[in-house]
Amino acid sequence: MLNSVLFLLLLGSPAPETVTFKTVAGQELKMDVYSPATVSGRVPAVVVVHGGAWTSGDRTQMAQVCRAIADSGMVAVATSYRLAPTHKWPAMIEDVQDSVRYVRDNAAKLKVDPNRIGAAGASAGGHLSLLLGTTDGWPNGNSTGKTSSKVKAVFNLFGPTDLSQDFNRTIANVLSQNVLGKPYAEAAAEIKSFSPVTFVTRTSAPVYTVQGKADPLVPFKQAERLDEVLKKNGVPHTLVLVEGMVHGVNQSKPEEMKAVADAVAWLKAQLTK
């Protein structure tokens, strides 16, 4: 967190405000709210979700993406969620959906437009962001009477989309045990409900995907599978496959930084329509 704060101070931008959006089983879940330097009226918001294979990582990893979003004139909210193996699926999606609900319920305080909320995430965070754009409540719609958790647009940065194929089986089995609580070979139903492609319909949010063609962890075929399903259902999707890009964004490579900058610009365009 210290490095993130120093980064912001060097830019001359305000440090984020940290708030608790949920307490579950005695654990406080927090989010960092990055606001534009000046806010006039209600502005769009983007809930930003970190990666880490659903087992590690934290919200401060997304500081630079959040600052880019805030610098574009939107509010960025870097959210936490419970992690495996201590917590099993669907704890993660429940938490990020609740983070969207918090932003929507506190729109006046945060100075955001509750009807203009998007999501962005990297790796496991991209996966969770895609579910924010394809579902509302979990797993089968918002039947609880809670505030909607559906977002209007999604920036997916190399997120897994169909966990039933393409992945190394040894790695897939370890993740299945840790996250879903059972061996991969015995988790067909859970894997289907874990995969964003399962929930795509014509009402799903538009998506902008940035995926590296040299990614050793999430094969770029995953992005192509998402592209096929979204287009089949008439959902707008921009797919950017970056040659030589691995499972991360290299700040020394202009083409990778441009891909992220273009995605942030796309988010703003979608959320200000």
Topology:
Elements: H1 2-11, E1 17-24, E2 27-34, E3 43-49, H2 63-71, E4 75-79, H3 91-105, H4 107-110, E5 112-122, H5 124-134, E6 154-157, H6 169-180, H7 188-194, E7 207-212, H8 221-232, E8 237-242, H9 254-271
Parallel strand pairs: 3-4, 3-5, 5-6, 6-7, 7-8
Antiparallel strand pairs: 1-2, 2-4
Helix pairs in contact: 3-5
Structure explained in plain terms:
This protein is globular. It contains nine helices and eight strands. By secondary structure, the chain is an alpha/beta fold. The longest helix is centred in the last third of the chain and has 18 residues. A hairpin with a 2-residue loop joins strand 1 and strand 2.
Structural class estimated from helices and strands? alpha/beta
State Rg.
17 Å
Q: In total, how many beta strands?
A: 8
Sheet with most strands: 8 strands, mixed
**Strand order within the widest sheet?**
1-2-4-3-5-6-7-8
Mean pLDDT: 93
Low-confidence stretches: 1-12
How many alpha or pi helices?
A: 9
Please state roughly what percent of the residues sit in beta strands, choosing from under 5%, 5-15%, 15-25%, 25-35%, 35-45% or over 45%: 15-25%
Estimate the helix proportion, in percent. Answer: 25-40%
Shape: globular
Kindly report how far apart the N and C termini lie: 34 Å
Provide the succession of SSEs. Answer: HEEEHEHHEHEHHEHEH
Oligomer kind:
single chain
Question: Which terms would index this structure?
Answer:
273 residues, alpha/beta, 8-stranded mixed sheet, 36% helix, 20% strand, globular
